[in-house]
Design goal:
This protein has three helices and seven strands; from the N terminus they run H-E-E-E-E-E-H-E-H-E. By secondary structure, it is of the alpha/beta class. The chain has one domain: Trna Endonuclease, Chain: A, domain 1. The strands form two sheets. It has a five-stranded mixed sheet with strand order 3-4-5-6-7, sandwiched between helices. Strands 1-2 form a two-stranded antiparallel ribbon.
Length: about 190
């Protein structure tokens, strides 16, 4: 290879390297734009999916709230009232309680989920621990915990009972049927 051929080859490699660098830069910029668009789409989907979960949670919460108004017992313990969506912030502690039941000497904290998992029990543990710190007026009250769910798997149910919590699930006459006088019979 002659010196001129070698110089030509080096110059060609330099040009190719510059073109490659520019192509990589353009690709990087395109990937950043695509990542941004994907992130925005996922954020929008996350909001939509989050709302689905929130709506299911709202349905479960309303169901158990209305059920506990009609039958305000947990086991053999009678409660006078039921309150939903209690929020409190004190110092570094902030909690939201789905349902709270009270009588003259006892409170019950009910964590409501559409579908309960074992990690929801850890959340209930934390809320139970913080309740009397957030609401010192209940300091002398007996405190009970409950997990309420449309569905709870066997392991989570066993763990809730092991931790000393009540477990509330749907049951009973949930279907009300009406019909017209003109039924279709085949």
């Amino acid at each position: 290879m002659t010196d001129d051929e070698l110089k030509e080859l080096v110059a060609s490699l330099a040009v190719d390297s510059k073109n490659l660098h520019e192509a990589q830069k353009a690709t990087d910029e395109q990937m950043k734009r695509n990542d941004k668009m994907l992130t925005e789409k996922l954020d929008r989907m996350g909001i939509t999916l989050g709302n689905i979960g929130k709506n299911q949670g709202d349905v479960a919460e309303e169901f158990f709230f209305q059920s506990l108004i009609k039958d305000n017992h947990l086991g053999k313990i009678h409660f006078d009232d039921v309150v939903k969506n209690m929020e409190k912030h004190r110092g570094n502690i902030q909690e939201e309680y789905d349902l709270v039941m009270t009588n003259g000497d006892a409170i019950a904290i009910v964590e409501v989920k559409y579908k309960a998992h074992e990690h929801d029990l850890d959340k209930l543990d934390r809320k139970m621990k913080h309740f009397k710190q957030l609401f010192p007026i209940y300091q002398s009250f007996k405190q009970y915990g409950a997990i309420a769910a449309f569905h709870i798997n066997d392991e989570a149910k066993e763990e809730a009972l092991r931790r000393g919590y009540f477990v509330l699930q749907r049951s009973g006459d949930l279907v009300h049927t009406e019909s017209s006088e003109h039924l279709t019979v085949l």
